[in-house]
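User: Sequence recovery, please. Input:
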C-alpha cells in the first residue's frame, strides 16, 4: 500500500476562475522520495501545503489525500494538528521566518520534542542536544543557547530539519529547503537530507531538477497547476515526453554532466524563476 496517495487533487482560492491546482495525482511508498519540480507559480508549494493541511481557510480543496490509508481532505483542524509533527512534517525554504526570532533555539526544538510525546526517557534538553548533533551541529549546547539570528543560514536550516524529524514522522515535505543557501552549504544540507530521509517517505519540492536528482529517484513535473509528466528521473532525462520537460532538460544539459559534477541550476535558464 502507498504511504501517501494523492488522487485528483484540485485547489482554488477565492473567486479565482482557474483552480491553482487541477487533477494532481501521485503516490509515494513508505521509503520513497518524490521530487516535484516546476517554475515559480506552477503549484508546487500549494501541493505540499495541501498535504500538510496548511492552506488558508478560504482555499477550496477537492479530491483525495490519503496518508497511511487515512483521508486528510476534510479532516477537522484539531485532528490534522495531531498528525502534524507526528506523522507528517515540513521543512520550509526560509528558516529565518520559520523560527521564532525571540526564542532560543534549544527551547524551540524542545517544544517540538515535548509537544507530541509526554513521556520520554531522559530530559527534553538532552534530546534536543542529541538532535542538534545528529543534524551536524558541532557545538549543540552553544547553539541551543543561541537565538536564531546568531546562527548562519546553514545552521538555521539544520535546526529546522531537526525540528521536522524530531518526532520521526513517516512523511516529510521539503519545500525548497536549500534554495536560500550558498552552493557549498546547499550540498551539505542535501547530503544530510538524503541520509535522514532514507528511511521514510518524502516529497522534495524544488525549481531545480539537478537538486531533485541528488535526493530523489522519481519526479513529477508541474506546469501551471498540473502534473505534465512523472516517473523515474533518469528515464525522464533520457526521454522526456512533454515539451516543457524537454526544454527543461535541453537547456540544463543535465544528461551531459558527468556524475559528481555540479549541475547548472534550472533558474539559470528560466530568468523568471525565483531562486
Ligand atoms: N493563499 C493564496 N491565495 C491565492 N492564491 C494563491 C495562494 N497561494 C498560492 N496561490 C496561487 O497558487 C498558484 C501556485 O502557487 P505556488 O506557491 O504553489 O507555486 P510554486 O510552484 O510553489 O512557486 P514558487 O517556486 O515561486 O514557490 C500561484 O498562481 C499562486 O498565486
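Assistant: Recovered sequence (275 residues):
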Amino acid at each position: 500500500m502507498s504511504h501517501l496517495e494523492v488522487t485528483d487533487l484540485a485547489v482554488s482560492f477565492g473567486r479565482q476562475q482557474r483552480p491553482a491546482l487541477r487533477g494532481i495525482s501521485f503516490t509515494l511508498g513508505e521509503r520513497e522520495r518524490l521530487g516535484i519540480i516546476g517554475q515559480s507559480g506552477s503549484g508546487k508549494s500549494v501541493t505540499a501545503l495541501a498535504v500538510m493541511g496548511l492552506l488558508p481557510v478560504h482555499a477550496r480543496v477537492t479530491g483525495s489525500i490519503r496518508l497511511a490509508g487515512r483521508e486528510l481532505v476534510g479532516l477537522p483542524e484539531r485532528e490534522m494538528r495531531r498528525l502534524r509533527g507526528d506523522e507528517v512534517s515540513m521543512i520550509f525554504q526560509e528558516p529565518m521566518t520559520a523560527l521564532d526570532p525571540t526564542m532560543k533555539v534549544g527551547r524551540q526544538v524542545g517544544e517540538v520534542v515535548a509537544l507530541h510525546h509526554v513521556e520520554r526517557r531522559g530530559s527534553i534538553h538532552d534530546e534536543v542536544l542529541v538532535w542538534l548533533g545528529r543534524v551536524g551541529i558541532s557545538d549543540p549546547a552553544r547553539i541551543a543557547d543561541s537565538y536564531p539570528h546568531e546562527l548562519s543560514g546553514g545552521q538555521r536550516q539544520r535546526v529546522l530539519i531537526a525540528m521536522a524529524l524530531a518526532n520521526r514522522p513517516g512523511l516529510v515535505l521539503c519545500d525548497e529547503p536549500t534554495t536560500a543557501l550558498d552552493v557549498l552549504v546547499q550540498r551539505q544540507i542535501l547530503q544530510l537530507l538524503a541520509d535522514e530521509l532514507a528511511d521514510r517517505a518524502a516529497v522534495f519540492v524544488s525549481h531545480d531538477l539537478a537538486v531533485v536528482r541528488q535526493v530523489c529517484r522519481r519526479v513529477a513535473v508541474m506546469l501551471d497547476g498540473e502534473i505534465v509528466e512523472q516517473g523515474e528521473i533518469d528515464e525522464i532525462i533520457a526521454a522526456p515526453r512533454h515539451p516543457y520537460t524537454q526544454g527543461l532538460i535541453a537547456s540544463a544539459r543535465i544528461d551531459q554532466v558527468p556524475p559528481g559534477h555540479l549541475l547548472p541550476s534550472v533558474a539559470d535558464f528560466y530568468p523568471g524563476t525565483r531562486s
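The first strand starts at residue 4 and ends at 13.
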